[in-house]
Design brief:
Oligomer: single chain
Radius of gyration: 19 Å
Structural class: alpha+beta
Number of helices: 3
CATH class: Alpha Beta
CATH architecture: Roll
Length: 142
C-alpha cells in the first residue's frame, strides 16, 4: 500500500510539472505573438528580428529561402520601406505543445497581405522559424 501511494504521489507531481510547463509555454507564445504583431504593424524589422531563430525560413512575395537573422532583418527592412505597413490584425492563432502560429492581415499602402508565422519554444524561448508575407487570396475563386 505504501509503495502504491509513493507511485501515485510521483505521478501527481510529474503531472503538475507538465501542466505548469504547458501553461508557461502558452503564455510565452501569446506574448511573443503580440510583440511580433506590433512589430509588423509598425514595420519594425529590427524588433521583429529579435524573435527569429538563428536561421529563419522567410518568404516575401514569392521569394523564399533560409536566412540568418541579419539577412532576414535587411530583407524585411527593405520590404517595409517599400510597402509602408499601416496596420496588422491577427485572424487566427494557435498553440500546441511547443509549437505555435499566427496568421493575420498586414495592411500596406497598396492593399492587404497575408502574413503567417510559425514558432517553436525551446530552452524557455519562443522564436519564429518561419515567416511568410504573401498576396492575400481571400475572395479569389479557384
Amino acid at each position: 500500500m505504501m509503495k502504491q501511494t509513493k507511485i501515485l504521489l510521483i505521478v501527481f507531481i510529474l503531472m503538475c510539472v507538465a501542466v505548469a510547463f504547458t501553461i508557461n509555454v502558452n503564455q510565452d507564445a501569446s506574448i511573443v505573438i503580440k510583440k511580433v504583431a506590433a512589430a509588423l504593424q509598425t514595420g519594425n524589422s529590427q524588433e521583429l528580428s529579435k524573435y527569429f531563430t538563428k536561421t529563419v525560413e522567410l518568404e516575401i512575395m514569392g521569394e523564399e529561402n533560409f536566412y540568418s537573422v541579419a539577412q532576414a532583418e535587411i530583407l524585411l527592412k527593405d520590404f517595409f520601406e517599400k510597402s509602408s505597413p499601416t496596420a496588422f490584425k491577427i485572424n487566427h492563432q494557435g498553440v500546441k505543445d511547443v509549437s505555435s502560429f499566427a496568421i493575420g492581415t498586414l495592411t500596406i499602402k497598396t492593399g492587404n497581405l497575408r502574413v503567417s508565422f510559425f514558432m517553436k519554444t525551446e530552452n524557455n524561448q519562443t522564436l519564429i522559424h518561419q515567416l511568410r508575407i504573401e498576396e492575400n487570396d481571400e475572395g479569389v475563386n479557384e
